[in-house]
Design a protein that fits this description.
The structure is a homodimer of 226-residue chains.
Chain A (H helix, E strand, L loop, with lengths): L7 H4 L10 H20 L2 H8 L3 H7 L3 H24 L7 H15 L2 H13 L5 H28 L8 H18 L7 H4 L4 H16 L11
Chain A binds a DNA duplex (30 and 30 nucleotides) through helix 4.
DNA sequence: TGTATATTACTGACTAGTCAGTCACAATGC
DNA sequence: GCATTGTGACTGACTAGTCAGTAATATACA
């Protein structure tokens, strides 16, 4: 298990008062356990053990298991928004190809680790039972991400580098592929045996290049560029 | 609720003995309830009610809740394999574009309804807890689908109609997009508000055309065709 | 054809176990 | 001291799985 370190008996970290970081510890553990077992399958006892606190402590900070779940998702929403803000950045006069490459590579990097997969599981498997949260997530994460990505594609179209495609559709196809590939490259995934031989970074690059080439304007279409 | 039809009071279907069709009734109900609430969140009582039988009846046909879950997934695996066999069919000397179009349209049609979404939820959210089933699903459904689709792409590349892309990668990107779009077009999905204005068939067509154009060989690349 | 008897499908109250949430008490810091 | 933070045994609601009993059908015999 992951609980306390060996010297907990002497220093007893678990009882050290640290009300500032308690909620974060608990939320970290909760994401792990919810992501692994789903909402109904997760035991608060397990979350407490993972967080290194007693079960009662959880209910000191979150009134119900449901509230804890919502807090986990909300924190994730905030994190994703902050990611997006950072990525918005500076296109400069970079070519659309290069900008999209950087943008997607960045995006792929933020979904690294089991963290993103767990969140994907929660969003796909549990969020529909919390309509309010789902709407929040839809507008604050999904819609934003799609709009942002589609604006990058749009820019490429306007510069004549990309073929005239519905930018929103392209954005959705690209995010689908990146998310699903993350999910599939997890050892416990049913798709794993088929892609386990590819290393994660290589997979990211392959995806990026696939979509960049997918969007590339055919030479014949380039009539409107110098 | 969805239980028995109005005349159940008079004819009392629930008490009618029908050992032949019981397992199917139960499996249908189970897919609904598991798909809606996940494994842990599903109550056998609810499954029984939906199937129009008493709870005990379920355990007459399936020893445990776990076995019931496995049976649901297994039946779905078989159904998917049969779908795939049917789609394999006759390319003739059709152009790769047309063949891929027909193939994908067909594929999109088989994932219609909430049925496929529920299955997607189970596969993404629950299957990792049943490694044996996951492996089974991986080899018998996912691997098959990818191989099949990639062979269609491969054919297009060989005919010079498609650009020289890794066919397996293309297959995975295409399936990701189709699956995720199905999931996102569900009213309860967080992505729903963004794509609800598109009708399902139109969405399918858009996806098909997007990927066909994505794969199209650039005129300049066509050196090896007549 | 009706009626007694056997067989099989099904039922639902019950049991044993689980787990979210509580609370009386303990430890810590000021 | 005494206020704040944390603990873990406890409770009560809930649910997978059981099983004694009931009802539908099949078979036997007249």
């Amino acid at each position: 298990m992951t609980i306390a370190d060996p010297d907990s008996a002497t220093t007893d970290h678990r009882r050290r008062r640290d009300p500032e970081s308690r909620p974060q510890q608990i939320l970290d553990a909760a994401l792990e356990v919810f992501g692994e077992h789903g909402f109904a399958g997760a035991r608060t006892d397990d979350i407490a053990t993972k967080a290194g606190v007693a079960k009662g402590t959880i209910f000191l900070y979150f009134p119900t298991k449901d509230d804890l779940f919502k807090a986990v998702v909300r924190r994730e929403i905030v994190a994703r928004i902050e990611d997006a803000e950072q990525r918005r950045a500076d296109a400069g006069d970079m070519s659309a190809r290069d900008f999209l490459r950087i943008f997607l590579t960045n995006y792929y990097a933020t979904t690294q680790g089991t963290h993103a997969l767990r969140m994907l599981r929660l969003v796909m498997g549990e969020l529909h039972k919390h309509p309010e949260l789902a709407r929040f997530y839809g507008t604050e994460v999904i819609a934003r991400a799609w709009t942002l990505l589609s604006s990058v594609v749009q820019r490429g179209i306007e510069r004549g580098e990309f073929r005239p495609v519905d930018p929103m559709l392209a954005a959705r196809c690209i995010t689908s592929a990146f998310l699903m590939h993350r999910a599939w490259s997890e050892p416990s995934s049913p798709g794993f045996p088929m892609i386990s031989h590819i290393d994660s970074a290589q997979l990211g690059n392959d995806l990026v290049e696939f979509f960049i080439d997918s969007l590339a304007a055919h030479p014949a279409d380039r009539s409107h560029t110098p």
